[in-house]
């Protein structure tokens, strides 16, 4: 059984990857600074779940502080790989605080890479994003599609992280698997993302803001599918960029209808102006993940939306207060 360092452990995806690894008998050293990128009560809730999991150990530290990694290595010299998920992830917020995105996503990644070099860590998994494909990629999008014209500093900072990771593979032989995730959703998801917002707004009878005309399409990916893919990527692979995406694209209007049906409530919809940082559509070609990792998305959109809505209803007493500005 192995010991892994996982950055962003209190995050939406980090929590599920940590849980799955520990269920398989591994140990996870989870790092997170619990920043205020969104309502921190959601991060604390996830962390409370994780603290009950045998094999999980939490450290509240900042990846932008190089000392974090040296302290972790002193305490845990037997780490086998790092799963680097910590980042500032909101697409819209990136325009308001671009320097924070660059600091966390680019410099933070550089710190992880430097730690790998100095401490002889041989394997990194880096979380990247479908946003890197910009405004109008060919759909479904393969990994070799153009990623040089991102629409936000978020995607630009992820591009920086990807190419720096390549440098460490080239110069120091670091085995690096970069996953480009496509719009992840599920229970305890991010409150700045559409699935959580729609669910809370409909459940609580609040106004549901849809940007544009609601025809934007997303290839949503269930969080457990993402976590299985990340874990499959821990094997030695050299240097690879791999899409992980869902198989049932849906537009925002149809997604809202699905949530309405599951909650048994009608939404009070308001259409608002579209944000220029939003892409029109995303949909992954996952042939590479299928061939290299034997990975397929397993959870249907209907199953995943049901799991999210059921989770929300169960946790409603506090989840209804989570800020969704
Ligand atoms: N959720 C998605 O749809 C999606 C899509 C594409 C890519 N990604 C990427 O996957 C990763 C995980 O995303 P998520 O949705 O779980 O986001 P999240 O914001 O829920 O999780 C990220 C976690 O990292 C932590 N963190 C950020 N900066 C840190 C720092 N400097 N030091 C320590 N901890 C720090 C945050 O507190 C947070 O808990 C991110 O890299 C994100 O860019 C997510």
Quick take:
By secondary structure, this protein is of the alpha/beta class.
Structure description:
It is a single chain. With 325 residues, the chain is of the alpha/beta class. It has a single domain, classed as NAD(P)-binding Rossmann-like Domain (Rossmann fold). The protein is built from eleven helices and 14 strands. Strands 3-2-1-4-5-6-11 form a seven-stranded parallel beta sheet, sandwiched between helices. A three-stranded mixed beta sheet has the order 12-9-14. Strands 7-10 form a two-stranded parallel ribbon. Helix 1 packs parallel to helix 2. The site of nicotinamide-adenine-dinucleotide has 29 residues, from helix 1, strand 2, helix 4 and strand 5.
Largest sheet composition: 7 strands, parallel
Order of helices and strands: EHEHEHEHEHEEHEEEHEEHEEHHH
Structure annotation, total helices: 11
| CATH architecture annotation | 3-Layer(aba) Sandwich
Rg from alpha-carbon coordinates: 19 Å
Instruction: Give the CATH H-level superfamily.
Output: NAD(P)-binding Rossmann-like Domain
Mean pLDDT: 97
Helix content: 40-55%
Per the principal axes of the C-alpha atoms, what is the gross shape? globular
CATH topology: the name is Rossmann fold
Low-confidence runs (pLDDT<50, min 5 residues)?
A: none
Q: Widest sheet: strand order? A: 3-2-1-4-5-6-11
Number of DSSP strand runs:
14
Strand content: 15-25%
CATH class: Alpha Beta
Bound molecules: nicotinamide-adenine-dinucleotide
Structural class: alpha/beta
Q: Distance between the terminal alpha carbons, to the nearest Å?
A: 42 Å
Q: How many separate domains?
A: 1
């Amino acid at each position: 059984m192995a010991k892994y360092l996982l950055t962003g452990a209190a995050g939406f995806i980090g929590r599920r990857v940590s849980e799955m690894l520990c269920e398989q008998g591994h140990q996870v050293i989870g790092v997170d600074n619990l920043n205020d990128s969104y309502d921190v009560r959601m991060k604390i809730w996830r962390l409370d779940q994780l603290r009950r999991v045998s094999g999980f150990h939490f450290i509240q530290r900042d990846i932008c502080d190089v000392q974090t990694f040296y302290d972790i290595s002193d305490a845990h010299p037997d780490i086998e790989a790092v799963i680097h998920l910590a980042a500032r992830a909101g697409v819209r917020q990136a325009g308001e605080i671009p320097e924070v995105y660059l600091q966390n996503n680019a410099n933070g990644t550089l710190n992880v890479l430097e730690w790998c070099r100095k401490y002889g860590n041989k394997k990194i998994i880096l979380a990247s994003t479908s946003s890197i494909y910009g405004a109008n990629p060919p759909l479904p999008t393969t990994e070799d599609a153009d990623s040089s014209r991102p629409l936000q500093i978020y995607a630009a900072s992820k591009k920086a992280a990807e190419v720096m990771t390549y440098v460490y593979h080239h110069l120091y032989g670091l085995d690096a698997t970069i996953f480009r995730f496509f719009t992840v959703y599920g229970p305890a998801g991010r409150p700045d993302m559409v699935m959580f917002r729609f669910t809370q707004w409909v459940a609580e009878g609040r106004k549901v803001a849809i940007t544009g005309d609601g025809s934007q399409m997303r290839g949503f990916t269930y969080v457990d599918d993402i976590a299985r893919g990340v874990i499959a990527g821990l094997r030695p692979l050299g240097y690879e960029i791999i899409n992980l995406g869902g198989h049932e694209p849906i537009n925002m209007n149809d997604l809202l209808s699905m949530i309405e049906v599951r909650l048994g409530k009608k939404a009070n919809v308001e259409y608002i102006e579209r944000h220029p940082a939003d892409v029109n559509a995303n949909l992954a070609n996952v042939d590479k993940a299928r061939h290299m990792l034997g990975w397929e998305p397993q959870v249907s959109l209907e199953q995943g939306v049901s799991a999210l809505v059921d989770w929300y209803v169960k946790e409603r007493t506090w989840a209804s207060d989570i800020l969704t500005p």
